[in-house]
Amino acid sequence: MIEKVYSARRNIGGIVALILWVCAVSGCADLLAPSDPSPEVLEKSGLRLAEDHLRSGNYAQAANLFAEMAKTKASPQRERLLLQATEAVLRSETRSLARKYLYAVDEAVLPRNLFVRKRIAQAEMELLYGQVDDALAALPASLLDYSPEYKPGALAVRARALRAAGRREEMVKTLVMLSPWLNETNQIQKNSQSIWEILMGSDSGELSTWANKNNDCDVDAWLSLAYIYKQPHASIFILENEIQQWRAQFPRNTIPDEILDSVTQDWAVTQVAPDRIALLLPMTGRYSAIANAIYAGVVTAREFEEAPGLLPELVLYDTGDDVATAYRQYKLAAREGADFIIGPLQKEAVREIAEQRRLDVPTLSLNYTSDASSGSANLFQFGLLPENEASQAAERAFHDGFRRALVLVPEGEWGVRLLDTFSTQFTELGGTVLQSERYVTTNSDYSGPIKRLLQLDQSEQRHRMIEKTIQQDVEYEPRRREDADLVFLAALPRQARLLRPQLSYHYASDLPVYATSHIFSGNENISADQDINDIQYGDIPWLLSSDPEIELLKDSSELQLSSSESRLPRFAALGVDAYRVIPHLQRLAAHKYNQFEGMTGKLSIGAQNRIYRKLTWAQFRNGIPQVQERPDLGFPRSFSAVAIHSESMQARQRACQ
User: Fold this and answer.
1) Which candidate, 252, 135, 92, places its Cα nearest to that of 657?
2) Could you give the maximum distance between any two Cα atoms of the chain, in Å?
3) What DSSP element (H or E) covers 39?
4) What is the DSSP letter of 504?
5) Would you list the DSSP string of 414-449?
């Protein structure tokens, strides 16, 4: 009997167990009483749901779940969840939510890694609001090594902030630091391209300055390669030799092969190497002296060319004074096999050629069209454009901290062009042109326009009114206006030597004067040029540099010229550059921020293939122009040149090899 009862109970227990198992797998809530899940189960369930929202793009819902869970947690778990909530909504459309959650995070209780994570989120948020300086302050360079776990994120966000701030040198260093932390191929490529784009947008002088301040081998490798790329190499063999030397100097570099290969590939694609160059110059007529100076410059540049192989043939075509003749000569040069054309010189002739829909022969004109939007893709416009110089004078004055300008220009079209250019550029930068006056170039007394410009005529008028009112003489000293802080002067040497002393006589000796190169004849005249002391102006390296190579070129070109033609040194320099820049035109056009170190300035190509010259700035002292700015530092060719801190030269070299 007992056995039967035991057996029955055992069967009942098995049935109950079976029922419980079925309910467990099928969810029969009606048969089983519910039990409260544990906090751990609830938290895991909430996290899974939040992650599902993130994957589905429901960022605000995900952030809300993280924030709700944070309410029941102690620090630092609470702050971790709030950071997750912040990161979920770090987007432009939900940035206000991100700010709300982030402000609830208490930095004081955060461990080091969460502290860095919080600052990354803060920098991201500031960038969303356009507060670049606040983003950089939230994530300073000193914080980058606080947490290896979050260092890649910190570097990436700081690099974005540096880009927004325009701090390109620091951005390069930051992106180079980021490189070894990246694992995915697309990330590495994207990061490397970002570095290369910044370096391509910097000129050789900037690269030299950065390299001389730098103390990091990886950054050195990037800077040195970019510097090599930007140099004018006479042949592919010279370039490849430079690359081999670079590889020996940086054997452990991590620069991707595609960037290394692009250096030689770009050179090969963009190199222009003509066999027959036609020169279209007005060797007879009104502009013959200028044409002869340009021709002497071209011939000199060819004579001293260092490129291997046969030199290109030069064929001269006289265009005279007639525009129609210039165009006929242009077509003749093309028919006779010229594969590159330099010229014409006259603006009207350049316009005639620019209006052609198609030019079969690449052409470098020696003047510009009035319409900056015109020109064939095969036409490069180059010359000594006065507007270029007036624009740079405005930039220089503004850079020097001056904001209120007075302008004094000659009557006529030339003066109007310089006035308009200076005024437009200075205003666009944020300055104000208070007043402008024009003078007659044939006069010697410029007191009239100077008094009006300085408002001395108003001061004199007030004096006369006072004397008339009180009917007696009044002791009087004229007072010029006090709201101006500079004068821009457009003048040729004769006028400049008269205008500067008269400005001083009329109580403006303390006002700095900026001018274009036209104030200097290009030939030293110490006694006469004492009168233009202190004037600042932009000019070409051909006249301001003491480099032995330039001196040799100058001497050679002058031997080919008459005494009158040798007094046109800027046009001889134009001829040198017109010849030397030919191989680099395509590279300059493809990379708008690249420059060519020319005799007429640092040359770059802008819109419609118009060549822009960056001048050197000088100031007259004791009748002699003195270069104001320090020349670009030479690029360090060994690490001993850039060793800093306590490292020895030998240790510096070993560190990069």
Assistant:
1) 252
2) 150
3) helix 39-56
4) I
5) HHHHHHHHHHHHHHHHT-EEEEEEEE-TT-S--HHH
**Which pLDDT score is estimated for 429?**
95
Let me know: does 653 contact 242? Beta carbons within 8 Å. Answer: no
Question: What is the distance of C-alpha 602 from the center of its chain?
Answer: 13
> CA 450 to CA 454: how far, in whole Å?
6
Q: Which two tokens stand for residue 162?
A: 């540096």
- In the numeric block, the tokens 């167990």 are attached to 17
Beta bridge partners of 599: none
Contact assessment for residue 223 and residue 211, using Cβ atoms and an 8 Å cutoff = yes
- What's the confidence (pLDDT) of residue 38? 47
Tokens of 134: 């606040």
The 8-class DSSP code of residue 51 comes to: H
In terms of Cβ atoms closer than 10 Å to its own Cβ (0-12, 13-18, 19+), residue 13 is: exposed
Q: DSSP state, 383?
A: S
* Mode of pairing for the β-strands spanning 432-439 and 602-605: unpaired
Q: How far apart are CA 269 and CA 4, in angstroms?
A: 100
Cβ proximity of 343 and 319 under 8 Å? yes
Instruction: Give the model's pLDDT for residue 222.
Output: 95
For the sheet with 404-410, list strands across it. 432-439, 404-410, 486-489, 513-515, 536-539, 616-621, 624-627
Distances, alpha carbon 237 to alpha carbons 205, 224, 241, 267, 635, in Å: 24, 18, 6, 11, 21
Six token digits for residue 589: 């056009």
The parts of the chain modelled with pLDDT lower than 50 are 1-38, 41-42, 463, 631, 633, 638-653
CA distance 176 to 373: 39
Which pLDDT score is estimated for 70?
A: 83
**CB atoms closer than 10 angstroms to residue 168:** 16
pLDDT of 236: 81
Looking at residue 642, its pLDDT comes to 33
pLDDT at 34: 44
CA 491/CA 518 separation, integer angstroms: 6
Encode burial over 270-281: b for 16+ CB neighbours within 10 A, e otherwise.
bbeebebbbbbb
Number of Cβ within a 10 Å radius of residue 176: 24
Given this model, what pLDDT does residue 301 score? 94
Residue 652: per-residue pLDDT: 45
Strand runs labelled E in 446-532: 486-489, 513-515
What value, to the nearest 5°, has the Cα angle with vertex 469 and ends 464 and 473? 55
Report which of 254, 227, 211, 250 is spatially closest to residue 654, judged by C-alpha positions. 250
* pTM of the predicted protein model: 0.70
Cα–Cα distances (Å) from 624 to 293, 530, 544, 582, 619, in that order, read 24, 8, 10, 33, 8
Q: What is the CA radius of gyration of the chain?
A: 36
- What are the tokens at 417? 């062009």
Q: E-assigned strands of 22-128?
A: none
Which DSSP category does 609 fall into? G
Alpha helices (H) in 129-203, listed in sequence order: 132-138, 151-165, 168-178, 185-200
